[in-house]
Amino acid sequence: MIGKHKSRELAMQVLFLWDSQGQADAELAERVIADATDDPAIRQRASTMAHGAWEMRQTSDQWMERLAPHWPPRRQPGVDRGILRLAIWELTSLDTPPKVVLDEAIELAKSFSTEQSPSFINGVMDAILREKNELTATSNSPTPAAGETAENS
Asked: If you count Cβ atoms within 10 Å of the first and of the last residue's Cβ in the chain, which end, N or C, has fewer?
């Protein structure tokens, strides 16, 4: 569990750096991660998480902007933006339990961001989780066969 937390922490730091530079710099990411840990599993996981969240950032940012229009990504502190991007990526790309994703995002905010950030991140992630669950429930519901109506099935 500690290794996964450390991986998230490092991935968030890499995302913050890339966001401040406006581009993904793999060499810089490797240096940051290598300076923080000797554990190859943590290094690999942190790198995978950072790259995945970075690649999905436009989708994540659109989702955040729609659900928190008064605090779009461009107005958020860079750390919060990185935490949210990472949490959204993990929630939609891995099989990590949603409660773990939310708890970890809140813990990262408590450690690295402003006093208001944990509640903001909790609110945004809760809305994203509700929406994701609704979409999943809708896509998993049985659909009538061709020519059938919902009443006939």
From this structure: N
Give me 91's structure tokens.
């929630």
Residue 108, token pair as written in the block: 């990262």
CA angle 62, 55, 108 (to 5 degrees): 75
pTM, entire model: 0.88
Q: How far apart are CA 72 and CA 102, in angstroms?
A: 19
Amino acid, single-letter form, for residue 116:
Q
Residues 6-40: tens digit of each pLDDT: 999 999 999 999 999 999 999 999 999 999 999 99
Whether residue 129 contacts residue 97, with contact meaning beta carbons closer than 8 Å, is answered with no
Kindly give, in sequence order, each residue whose CB lies less than 8 Å from that of residue 148, ignoring residues fewer than 6 positions away.
none
Domains located in the chain, CATH noted: 2-140 (1.10.940.10)
